[in-house]
Amino acid sequence: MFKTIDETLDWIHTHLPHGIKPGLSRMEWVMDKLGHPERTIRAIHVGGTNGKGSTVSFLRSVLMETFEEVGTFTSPYIVSFNERIAVNNQPISDEDLVKAANMIYPFAEELGKSDLGYPTEFEVITMISLVYFSRIHPCDVVIYEVGLGGRLDSTNIIYPLVSVITNVGIDHVAQLGGTITEIASEKAGIIKSGTPIVTTAEHPDALKVIQEKATQMKAKLYQLGQHFEVVQESSSAAYEEFHFKSLYWNFSGLKSSLRGPHQIKNASAALKALEILSTFYAFPIEEEAIRLGLSKTAWPGRFETVSTNPLIFLDGAHNEEGVKALVKTINETYPDKTVHLLFATLKDRNNESILQHLQTISEHITFTTFDFKRAEKAEELEKLGVEGKVRQDWRAALDELAGGLGAEELLLITGSLYFIAEVRRELKKYQKA
User: Fold this and answer.
1) Which residue, 29, 136, 215, 351, shows the most beta carbons closer than 10 Å to its own?
2) Total-model pTM
């Protein structure tokens, strides 16, 4: 059994070599041994390709204006491991993380000796979250973000009040398939029997899959453009202003500090889910809570302003869909600025296409890399046909680029979320110093 947080984290990370093992059999085995803690949690389930984290943030922020205790389970982490499991945006304490890990440890070890084999790292973290939110720190509501896919993701063990599927795009093709139809089938796997499902997916193939799955599961489907609408009213460097309209709610002049037209769609998904909770589950969500919650929403590493003089942004746009949204946001928000890019990514991404999109907003791209086993080499990025320069040391590159920015220029640091997390930690240390 564990006595310190270091012992606990070391044990959790020993499951990393078990890789990705899709399926719920190991989760079901442990949940049964624990007496099914997942059945005691009032949950919202959020899946999709891009926008999951932002949608979770919108939901959390509004619900925090309504309830005393709002839990979240998210991934990956940006600042610290503990933030993956949080209450009211405050990460789980080291003491509670140790306590929750000790509760599942004997069953995880017993599972490892069975025919099912050892759980993955993500499964262990999900198990820890379930015992934490059910037995150590019960909450009014908990928002669960899907890790990978949906159908076979370990979070799919929960019984949500409402589920959300954001947009569906090409990502994680090795695990989910190479077509929109295949990927949408995995995402739609979170649709439960009789559970309302909200979606902002727009691709016809994805919508067809989601519609068919909802019909099969007798789950009421609420689709952007048919059952609810969102219209951008104005945009500035400070916020997006928009109008949301649905059957029961009709609000104009809503403001979100998360910028970009894609964030308005994410906000609309959250609002429709909240409307369902208010209408059919008697959640006491008032208009003031909606407006305050949306305006306070923040999500690290998503077009995050880390410096205003010089102007520096972080954005974890790590796939083609995310990059398209980022490019549109830059073009609409800073059309007259000269954009400098610092880019580092992973090997298993469609980096050539990603860089082609980024090249449309910047002629000044710096390729770099970072200390991560799946990180792509900077010199390999240079070979992809997009003009740029190589800097092996991203810290030196950051100092060089930031130090040379003028009033009409901005620096955008983007690529892998793991890279963004590393840069953000370094910048925070610098700001404190």
Assistant:
1) 351
2) 0.87
Residue with token string 């995995």: 186
Please enumerate in sequence order all residues whose Cβ is within 8 A of that of 86, keeping only pairs 6 or more positions apart, or say none. 71, 72, 74, 92
The single residue listed with the structure tokens 């500035």 is 236
Half-sphere exposure for 366 (CA within 13 Å, toward CB):
21
Beta-sheet strand order (sheet of 304-308):
304-308, 311-315, 409-415, 338-344, 364-367, 389-390
State the average pLDDT over residues 322-326: 87
Domain positions in the chain are 5-296, 304-428
Rg (CA), the chain: 21
Phi, psi (rounded to 5 degrees) for 224: -60, 130
**Token couple for 411:** 């620096």
Q: Give yes or no for a contact between 420 and 314, defined as CB atoms under 8 angstroms apart.
A: yes
Q: What is the second-level CATH architecture of the domain 304-428?
A: Alpha-Beta Complex (3.90)
CATH superfamily of 5-296: Mur-like, catalytic domain (3.40.1190.10)
| Neighbouring-strand partners of residue 342 | 366, 413
Between vectors from CA 326 to CA 411 and to CA 361, what angle results, nearest 5°? 55
Q: Which residues of 214-228 are buried (b: 16+ CB within 10 A; e: fewer)?
A: beebebebbbbeeeb
Fold match, 5-296 / 304-428? no
Of 21 and 249, the structure prediction assigns the larger pLDDT to: 249
Cβ pair 179, 162 in contact under 8 A: no
Residue 376: how many other CB atoms lie within 10 Å:
22
